[in-house]
Amino acid sequence: MSTGFFDGIPDIAYEGADSTNPLAFHHYNPDEMVMGKRMEDHLRFAVAYWHSFAWEGGDPFGGQTFIRPWHPQDDMGRAKLKADVAFEMFDILNAPFFCWHDADIRPEQGSFAGNLATLNEMTDYIGEKMESSGTKLLWGTANMFSHRRWMSGASTNPDPDVFAFAAATVKSCMDATHKLGGANYVLWGGREGYETLLNTDLTQELDHMGRFLNMVVEYKHKIGFKGQILVEPKPQEPSKHQYDFDVATCIGFLRKYGLEDEVKLNIEQGHAILAGHSFEHELALAASEGMLGSIDMNRNDYQSGWDTDQFPNNTPEVALAYYHVLKSGGFTQGGTNFDAKLRRQSLAAEDLIAAHIGGMDICARGLKAAAAMIEDGGLETALTKRYAGWDTPAARAMLTSSLDAITQRVLDEGINPEPRSGRQEILENYVNRFV
Q1: pLDDT in the model for residue 34
Q2: CATH 3.20.20.150 domain range(s) in the chain
Q3: Quick one: which of 10, 258, 289, 337 has the most CB atoms within 10 Å?
Q4: In CATH, what is the architecture of 33-376?
Q5: Which of 26, 27, 51, 104 is labelled catalytic?
Q6: Cβ-based neighbours of 91, under 8 Å, separated by 6 or more
Q7: What is the pLDDT of residue 213?
Q8: Would you say residue 189 has pLDDT above 90?
Q9: Where does the record place the catalytic residues (predicted)?
Q10: Cβ atoms 366, 319 nearer than 8 A
């Protein structure tokens, strides 16, 4: 039975680039073959439950602007209505996946026992809806940043009771994710960091965070969860410094605590920008270390200083992102989650559908451009030429040599290199041919 929230909005179909219908896909054709694989299977789109249904339209300077039938989100009846509306939207978009935090799908009860009971009830309810829907769970996670109990962190909290509450919360969310057949479980340390070093023991907090993540991996194997464990880098906001600052920081952390073979990364475009990087950089670095697991696809407003979580609309950026995803072999269990939200003035139900249409179309255009560049091979050819000097026996021998021996070779051979062009503008022009 329809909730009526999306009345008048049809199921969204692919109509092609020439269509002027705002409620149609213009580039995303799920069955189109790209590099021998269906587009839907490459992109593995997921709808973010929190931004699409739980977010009420507030920002740092103003409160709620969205008035939804499931507001206020404080009882089980409205939680189930919210789930009904969510699955209606999944069906309208034919979305393959969705993602959630526990606090998105169940109302806060103020105690762990209460939260566990409502989470389990909602897990069963969502499981029933999934049985009649084609939408699966890409990943689940725990919200350990919104409630006041998390104000000083979760696994890094100086209060051991908060650590215990966090451990129990993550166990419950892993159980729910496992029960719903989730392909991944994500840990996002929204407040795993500090406001000031004056009251922070860095060594203890990092050790506790490392042990906590090891317990997560141990529990994964205990229950037979086959999904990936992912951590999500984020540099700041709300903490002054967060321990999962960027991809490089996370890789160093995982290696320090012996987790590099067990945990991969869920990388968000907006977080990359906050860290002073490009999305392309973060993806390339994770892929080079074999730790690229999944992505959150959004964008930031480059004129704002916080994480604005807007839907993507920049095809060249998205194309370069998928270039590195495809180069690394593509997604296995990960996918493209729209950790993106409407603008607080976009009040209509139609806006929510249109935002996802636009995001899915941009990703489809980016994917096709990335695949075309890979099949053309121009960037790889340029890389091969640039590093060709390292293919000689003398060059390779330097990597197992010594400073003394290399210095003697420079003297003996009179080596005095001339700089060579990096051809950046030519390569940028090359990319622009495809986007």
Answers
A1: 98
A2: 33-376
A3: 337
A4: Alpha-Beta Barrel (3.20)
A5: 104
A6: 11, 133, 134, 135
A7: 98
A8: no
A9: 101, 104
A10: yes
